[in-house]
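Re: [ENG-882] Designed sequences occasionally contain unexpected residues at chain ends

Forwarding the minimal case from QA. Structure tokens:
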């Protein structure tokens, strides 16, 4: 969708696209095509409103039909360690010993509240753009 000199109002866009709850794969694919076309365009305020609505409808459909499941604290930690090439020795300050780090990574120990807070701080401080909290590391 590209902006035109005669900008459509939100009501006109709603009439044109008639967004509704997505129930079928065909409706899902149609909404995806509209959103994908909008991503590469400079949107008007009304188009932005429609875009946000379509994204919410798509996300709701995906939650139902393509559930992701909740990650475990160990999976989150392992993924971050892999992504940022963190060695277990780098986390000794968080856990207190290399043995405890290895126990947690191997699923033989749990992450305490204080360790979870330190992990969030560790990753947030070292890698800009992250906004982890202790909740990301607790069951």
């Amino acid at each position: 969708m590209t902006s035109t000199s005669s900008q459509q109002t939100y009501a006109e866009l709603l009439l044109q696209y008639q967004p509704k709850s997505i129930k079928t794969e065909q409706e899902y694919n149609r909404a995806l095509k509209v959103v994908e076309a909008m991503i590469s365009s400079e949107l008007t305020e009304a188009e932005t409103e429609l875009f946000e609505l379509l994204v919410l409808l798509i996300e709701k459909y995906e939650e139902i039909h393509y559930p992701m499941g909740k990650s475990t604290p160990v999976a989150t930690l392992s993924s971050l360690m892999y992504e940022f090439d963190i060695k277990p020795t780098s986390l000794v300050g968080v856990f207190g010993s290399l043995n405890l780090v290895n126990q947690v990574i191997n699923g033989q120990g749990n992450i305490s509240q204080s360790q979870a807070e330190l992990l969030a701080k560790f990753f947030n401080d070292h890698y800009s753009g992250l906004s982890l909290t202790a909740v990301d590391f607790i069951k």
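QA comment: On inspection the terminal residues look reasonable. DSSP finds seven helices and no strands in the chain. Proposing we downgrade this to a documentation issue.
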